[in-house]
Specification:
7-stranded mixed beta sheet; 4-stranded parallel beta sheet; alpha/beta; 12 helices
């Protein structure tokens, strides 16, 4: 009888241990941390998950889609509770989602939408609106003339979203004959060198260039370098996004007109909050009515607004909100 009592106690302890869920384990798959914007996303997300009682395993693919796929399998096999993906390639990432769903692991698409997949949640900035903000600002300053569009990689859905925003503003002006698109191309990577190489023959073509809208600040940086080589920096309007330190410095120098600041802290908080809720079996989209069609399903989503940063409002935006320290800009 005593032996039975001991066995019963052991079984009871095991059942209690099984019922006590350890801290939620969240897997974060990242494209890159080479740009400071993404390092800030990582740090903010990890901090928020930790504050909410979870832990994060981060894998960075260095912009290699096949590496990210392998990293996804590693996290799935490790048994993470939730997978958060910033996809290198939206098509390849859909394969990661498929593998995760086979193991009943919820998936959150962060910043970049993973198309044609069974993702559970999407947290991002309203990228169509970001494109509209870029185009609206430049066309207010330069309502006529020759424009160049340098879009991001077509493997990233944001590139198409930004383009849609640009054309929402530009197309009526193009139809009126006020604006002419002299080049409209997409780079292969979100890298300054890609934009630099793309921009050089456009400049060499000899047509006057009045404005360039770039998919992000990395591409804007490459555009500016090409303009500098031809003595055109500061004479051509340039728009980017992400509020990189280099972009803020270029704005102060007069080489870049605007960037668009994304609310990284809010993005990270919303993604972390959703991940922890999902890990605990809760629905993060409860009482939410907003969805995004990813080609497979209507995905519950949170889309935040970006903010234009120009020379006049740097201190009132990125500095006052603690996104960039003033000494970082002027060091």
């Amino acid at each position: 009888m005593k032996q039975f009592h001991v066995i019963f106690q052991i079984l009871l302890v095991l059942l209690l241990l099984a019922g006590c869920k350890q801290q939620p384990e969240i897997g974060l798959l990242m494209d890159t941390t080479a740009r400071e914007r993404w390092a800030k996303d990582r740090d903010s997300f990890v901090k928020k998950v930790n504050e909410l009682g979870g832990s994060v395993t981060v894998k960075v693919a260095d912009s290699d889609a096949s590496v990210q796929f392998q990293q996804g399998l590693e996290l799935i096999n490790a048994g993470v509770d939730v997978l958060v993906i910033i996809p290198v390639d939206m098509t390849v990432a859909a394969g990661i989602v498929k593998m995760a769903k086979k193991q009943n692991i919820p998936v959150i698409s962060y910043d970049r939408l993973i198309k044609d997949s069974d993702i559970d949640f999407y947290v991002s900035t309203d990228n169509i609106n970001v494109g509209e903000q870029q185009a609206n600002f430049l066309t207010t300053v330069q309502p006529t003339g020759n424009y160049v569009l340098i879009g991001g990689p077509t493997s990233d859905n944001n590139s198409f979203q930004l383009h849609l925003g640009w054309m929402n503003v530009l197309q009526p002006l193009i139809d009126k004959g006020d604006i002419k698109l002299i080049s409209h191309q997409f780079v292969k990577r979100w890298e300054p060198e890609d934009a630099y190489v793309m921009m050089k023959p456009i400049i060499a073509g000899g047509q006057e260039i009045n404005a360039v809208i770039a998919g992000n600040d990395a591409l804007a940086d490459g555009v500016i370098r090409a303009l500098q080589e031809h003595g055109l920096a500061g004479k051509v309007l340039v728009a980017g996004q992400d509020a990189d330190i280099g972009a803020i410095r270029n704005i102060i120098l007069g080489n870049q007109t605007i960037t668009v600041y994304k609310p990284i802290e809010s993005l990270a908080f919303n993604a972390a909050d959703a991940a922890i809720k999902m890990a605990k079996g809760k629905n993060p989209s409860e009482n939410m009515g907003f969805t995004v069609n990813n080609g497979h399903r209507l995905v519950p989503a949170i889309l935040l607004n970006g903010q234009v940063v120009n020379k006049q409002n740097i201190r009132m935006t990125v500095i006052s909100e603690g996104f960039i320290a003033e000494q970082e800009i002027f060091e």
